[in-house]
Amino acid sequence: MNILKKLENLENVTPNERILIETILNNPERFLAAKPKEIASLTYVSVPTLYRLINKLGLSGVNDLKLQLQDALHTETETAVESFDFPISPTDTVNEIQQHLKDVYAQTIDDTLKLSDQQVLVEVSQLMQKAAHIDVYASAGNLFFAQNFAFQMQEINVSVHVPEAEYMQKLSAGNADATHLSIVISFGGRGGSMNTVCQILSDNQSPIVLITSTQKNPLTRFAKYRIFMSSYENHYQKISSFSTRLTLLYILDTLYSIYFRLNYQTLLDRKLSTYEKIHRRLNRREPEI
Length: 289
Known about the structure:
Layout: H1 3-9, H2 15-26, H3 28-33, H4 36-43, H5 47-56, H6 62-77, H7 94-115, H8 118-130, E1 133-137, H9 142-155, E2 160-161, H10 166-175, E3 180-185, H11 192-203, E4 208-212, E5 225-228, H12 242-262, H13 264-283
Parallel strand pairs: 1-2, 1-3, 3-4, 4-5
Helix pairs in contact: 7-12, 8-12, 9-12, 10-11, 12-13
């Protein structure tokens, strides 16, 4: 995950560590140029506080933190997309529209990859494998991607439940327990219904995987795991959710692929066998009467 995003989302930090984080995020270039004692003086925190923060980030030292900051800053300056919210203009040719969308898609995939925590993805896939039931909660346009994920899993004979109506989502959450893995898709946690769903799931001790943006999301407090979506787009002021749709598809496809890899040959044989049976039936000519 990009170190800037990791700093933004780091939890269980002390007030002094939070001051240090805000200083780094607000002026990373100044941090890069300073020595540990200068950093402590600049932020009015102790040098041990700096090293405790570095340990929480899983880094080996100040130089490691600076190297990752440099890489993150360099990556940000390489963003080819002028606007994720308005990537096309009324004067664009068809070729320019296609090129602009291609740039949005490429940057979205790259950013999603940088935000990913591979250990989390593996552990979530393992939870999927162990769960007696997998439920996916989504709303609006995200529902179509949840349904596509359910279709992929059904192809390998794994049932995934995607309740659509708000009442059915609450009913499904009410019936969930620790044997259910609940995947919640919510960019910013703005909908009150999804908050209620998560509260019910939490009361029922159903582990929650939250697929969310890097922005603050009130649903985070319920989640056992978080998977981050690329978050360049404005939630409302935009032409369309070009980037958000792709980042979600990429994440769900990744979870499916890791799950598939855990039992690769068995699942491959199962899927090919199923489609072979369907193909034979479709091509079998009915006897003439």
